[in-house]
Fold:
Amino acid sequence: MKLLTYGCQMNVADSERMAGLLRQIGYTLTDDFDAADLILINTCCVRATAEDKVFGQIGRLKALKKQKPTLILGVAGCMAQKEGDNLIKRAPHIDFVLGTGQSSEVARVVRSLELERKHFVDVSNVSGDIPSEVFPLRGGQVSTFVPIMYGCNNFCTYCIVPYVRGRERSRKPEEIFAEVKQAVAEGFKEITLLGQNVNSYSGGMTFAELIGVVDKISGVERLRFMTSHPKDLSDELIAAMAGGRHICEHIHLPVQYGNDKILKRMNRVYTVEKYLELVKKIRAALPHVSLTTDLIVGFPGETDDDLRETLDFIREVQFDAAFTFIYSKRSGTPAATFPAQVDDDTKHRRLDALMKVQNEISLAKNRALEGTVVEVLVEGASKTDDKIFTGRTRSNKLVLFAHGEERAGDLINVKITQAQTWLLKGEVNVL
Ligand code: SAH
Ligand code: SF4
Ligand code: F3S
Structure:
């Protein structure tokens, strides 16, 4: 089988679970499209560009499917949930479509299609989660994801996620601990706890308590989490981070915009002032914390003045990095019907302006690390040069260094010699 995963880490985690289920009925992973008897595309619909990529991929598979009619082609995930049988109408070479709540059915569906070919679509249940007993077939070897909750209740007005992932559900702490132990036993050193809004975890303890317990599980060398909604990030969590041993000094804290008018229209619930207070509190407790964020330009009603305020805001906060997106109209969300939608040229102009300011900040932040020695968790050879290894700092910055005796999973000291906007270069510290 060949799995193609688009979208966020939650989709990566789901794909690993679906692969785990398919392994039970005899499928093994391959990277080779021609060798695969089953191709499963796990999809994202957060922005139109994400959907375009998926349609492109489905289109490219048409010829392969014609050549090899026994090939089973399935589409799962958020776009499957949103589009249902429209996908098959548009691309009849797809065999099955499974919504986000049906991923635990994947093996049963594939089995039945092996016996009898017909189109199969099920997007009926948006909140059916894969049972915890399912053993994920994890990718990578150093770092892995453990979902602690599914769904989202926040309904930011631009966002499709609550519609395709359903309401918030928290997994039980024991299930999470068992999964972390299992991942550690498989050799993973770094665990990232996942949820659309981890701070509203409600599985019987608070998120701060949960992360405190996971921090003490033996073998967990590094612990991360995402994503945090600024409205729910608690003092208790900040204290847990300050007191934790393996909890990394990094918070991804999507702000989305830097002025109150747009934040209100986005239904983000906090104000710029509240966000700045939160940042101050975090930095007081965790002086070496790295803060990253998501920002959207071109939201309906945005003016050049709004953007100027956002640029001032990001200059004030000094994020280590920001993921910047152009607003994408998602039908069914409230913002899709808001007046004063912004035209494409203006959106691109604003994105460029935002990226220019943030890139300068990111570079300056990284330059400040030149000459310092940082702890790096080695990931392995870089994709382009096997003499160069990559790893990450506790602050989640990518580091490239010349390979010596290191192996994936080692924690080593690296001296930073050169900073770039999105990465650091260094040499292994021989001290
Ligand atoms: N639950 C997480 C992640 C949601 S999706 C959170 O709240 O941060 C990841 C990012 O995609 C969001 O943070 C947002 O910046 C962006 N995004 C979501 N919907 C979008 C849309 N319609 N257009 C552009 N960007 C969008
Ligand atoms: Fe979307 Fe907002 Fe939920 Fe994040 S918190 S998934 S942006 S609705
Ligand atoms: Fe995309 Fe679904 Fe994640 S829409 S961002 S894959 S939750």
